[in-house]
Amino acid sequence: MKRVLLRITAATVAVRVVVFVAAVAALWAAVPSALASPRILMPVLILALMPALFPNSGVVTGVMLTVVCGWMFGTLGLGETVSVVGTFVTAAARYLLHSFATLAAALPYDAIVDTAVLLRWAARAGLVLAGSAAMAAIVVTLAQSLPPTTSTVAILSGFGVVAGTVWLLARKA
Amino acid sequence: MEHDEEPQWVPTRALGRAVLVAGFLLFGAVLFGRADLVVLAAPLALSVAIGLMRRPTSTPGLRLSTVETLPVEGGELGATIEVDNSDTAGYDLAVLRVQHSSWLKLADGDRPHVTSVPRQYAAAVELAGPAVRWGRQTLGPASVQAFAADGLLASRHLVTGALSVRVYPMTDPFEADDAMPRAAGLVGQHRSRRAGESGELAGVRQFAPGDRLRRIDWRVTLRTERLHVAATLSDRDAEVVVLLDLLADAGKSEGVNGSASVLDRAVRASAAIAEHYLHLGDRVSLIEYGASARRLRPASGRRQYLTVLEWLLDARPSPTAQERGGAQLAASISADALVVVLTPLLDGRSAAMLAGLARAGRFVVAVDTLPTGLVAPTTGGGWTNVAWRLWRLDRENTIGLLREHGVPVVAWAGAGSLDTVLRDVARLASAPKVGARA
């Protein structure tokens, strides 16, 4: 442990800090407002620390699914109202958690990292978020209104994204 | 069938995670008809889509090279690791690692280096630092793992071979001004004790048949009214045999700026002695006294100096149960050669070998290569100090016995180390020998 602390580099620490902050934001945004209190902050912080410490483990998937389940519990179970901005902020925070955990998993803790790697990674994440924002705007506009009404657009766009992803995965290199 | 061919790019845990979470959200969106779940899934689905659209197919190229300009201990060495991307998709990052000998102090050489590699581009990481100890040091192997498609795909680890870097020993400053005991060749730079053609004045004597006219000393001739010539001493070359005792090693080797082991001192001293005598035009040969019993044939000149340095790179402590005695060694050494034995005198056979060489009539100088700063081991109980002192006394006794038998023993101290003993050896060589043939 002492050796790790002595050798860890600033760039890898910075990436893990981003993972931690994104995890805190995603978890806090997913906590139903009925349960949100200072008492729940500590478990959120501890849970958010896990992906930063173990980015190359199943913990990241667990935290992301926790965010999704928390969101679904709040909106479907407790019937909380959903805002477009709130939804997108949660999506963005969860994506940043995923993206920077991927980067943290690829970077050895003691690596000398070229700054261009971090800048390009951040730029790509920004690009994905901008595209997602545009997609969200289109989905929301088409759906007219967000839940609780059942939306045909949601079903169709969901099927469309699934089909596109499956096609990309199945595509021969 | 191509099923045996392993894929060069494999999905990372991130790809599975993204597909799982996005699929879960989209399944929920379809099941409950919720557009907000589509918004939640959008960044993940989009990143997977963008990432996989530009996935690489070919493996990265990797090269490890060094800028080797015959480095000497303490000199700078440069190494370059180059990762090449000939694909149409760029690599988000490439993690480069290189292993190397601990004697190559490359700056951040023990850390992984991460760089991005755009498509159709070769990125290089340069490492530089001093090589702090002589020898054949290893540089490599180097390895690379590249990540592409937003970290969703990772290449397999690619590993290069290792390079052998020659680091030559630093020669301790060494000068020996005194005459060689018995110069042998026809030409050279040593002032011998025999008359001959050179600039070194031996005296003025009467002209004799065979003397060259240009040698006539006109001042003395006019004063004495008889022809006199200036007699000079001849300049001769000589053969120097450097014998490295590799039966045992001791001391700690810390490189060029730290303490030196027996082997370090022996190698550096050998290089210095060889450089000095080869510079004077003498023939130098090297012999290993150890298991491998290597031998470098005598030769002179710059080429021989480089050969000596190359030969010294392979010097290793090589203890052996059976080693040749001094008489056996003497049989392969010219009778006129000066034998410089670099020995720590840690093995009883070393002293016997020195005595054997001296008995066989060789001109032997023993150079003590045992480091001066050796201290008694701190472990082993109360008797360790006593045993240490006894050993030191025994060793000093051996050195005294060798001196009594006509083998001068001198501690290696660089410049001028051998002057005193060389003078003694030269005097012994010029003295008539008991029982020598007329």
Please give a structural write-up.
The complex is a heterodimer of chains A (173) and B (438). Chain A is an all-alpha fold and 173 residues long. In chain A, 77% of the residues lie in helices and 1% in strands. Chain A has seven helices and one strand, in the order αααααβαα. Chain A is globular, with a radius of gyration of 18 Å. The mean pLDDT of chain A is 86. By secondary structure, chain B is α+β, with helices and mostly antiparallel strands. In chain B, the strands form four sheets. In chain B, strands 1, 4, 5, 7, 8, 9 and 10 form a seven-stranded antiparallel beta sheet that branches. A six-stranded mixed beta sheet of chain B has the order 16-15-14-17-18-19, sandwiched between helices. A three-stranded antiparallel beta sheet of chain B has the order 2-3-6, with no helix packed on it. The model of chain B has no long low-confidence stretch (mean pLDDT 84). Classes of the chains: A mainly alpha (173), B alpha+beta (438). The interface between A and B is large, with 72 and 57 residues. Strand 1 of chain A pairs parallel with strand 5 of chain B.
Largest sheet of chain A: none
Structural class of chain B: alpha+beta
Morphology call of chain A: globular
Mean pLDDT of chain A: 86
What does the overall shape of chain B look like?
A: elongated
Keywords:
heterodimer, A: about 170 residues, mainly alpha, B: alpha+beta, 7-stranded antiparallel sheet, 6-stranded mixed sheet, 9 helices, 19 strands
